Amino acid sequence: MARRHGVSDEVLATLDDQENCPVTEAEKAALRFAERMTSEAGGVGAEGVDELRAHFDEAQIVELACVVGLFNYLNRFAEALGMWPTRVGEGGPDEG
């Protein structure tokens, strides 16, 4: 899906090395926030939010937190129920 939205292979290959990933400083801050929120939500703290404020307004920060939280919820829900994505030919919604 990321490739369909213009994310390069180089970015995808270096997402785990956020400091060297070829994205903007704002995107790096968002990636750090998402990682902290995912691994230790209570550890984000004022410092983590302040880092975002250098690049985003309050509404954008709330939206970012909502998106990260939603995907964390969906992943945990799917894992708890053993739900895994289907591949082409395995009966996904486009195969009516």
Comma- or semicolon-separated keywords:
96 residues, globular, mainly alpha, single chain
Task: Give the arrangement of secondary structure elements.
Layout: H1 9-14, H2 25-40, H3 45-53, H4 58-81
Helix pairs in contact: 2-3, 2-4
Describe the structure.
The protein is mainly α and 96 residues long. The protein has one domain (3-85). 57% of the residues lie in helices and 0% in strands. The chain contains 4 helices and no strands. The chain has helices at residues 9-14, 25-40, 45-53, 58-81. Helix 2 runs antiparallel to helix 3 (45-53) and helix 2 (25-40) crosses helix 4 (58-81). The chain is globular. The model has no long low-confidence stretch (mean pLDDT 87).
SS strand fraction? under 5%
Please report the total strand number as a whole number.
0
Number of helical segments with 4 or more residues:
4
Q: Kindly, what is the distance between the CA atoms of the first and last residues, rounded to a whole number of angstroms?
A: 21 Å
Name the poorly predicted regions: none
Apparent shape: globular
Radius of gyration: 16 Å
Tell me the major beta sheet.
none
Mean pLDDT equals: 87
- Helix share, percent: 55-70%
Count of discrete domains: 1
Order of helical and strand elements: HHHH
Give the class from helix and strand content and strand pairing. mainly alpha
